[in-house]
Amino acid sequence: MGLSGYALRANPTYATGAAGSRRILLGSAAHFVAVPPERDDEPVREFASFTADLHRLADG
Fold it and tell me: For the chain, N or C: smaller number of CB within 10 Å?
């Protein structure tokens, strides 16, 4: 079963895997990046698939 941005926001622990790992979900309209909740105050972030947003994701 695949994850959605909603699933990551509802339960950020889905972001955990190997220690310190991240999870990135790529979609046609938006991308979601998740880190373990203890690593960031906002463990799940959404980035639109426009160039400026992708630059923001890369700088993140």
Answer: N
Residue 58 to residues 1, 2, 11, 13, 54: CA-CA distances in angstroms? 27, 24, 24, 22, 6
Which DSSP category does 1 fall into? -
Q: What is the pTM of this model?
A: 0.62
Tell me the mean pLDDT per 10 residues along the chain, length 60: 58 56 79 82 86 83
Determine the Cα–Cα distance for residues 51 and 37; give it in Å rounded to an integer: 27
Q: In what order do the strands lie in the sheet with 23-26?
A: 23-26, 30-34, 44-48
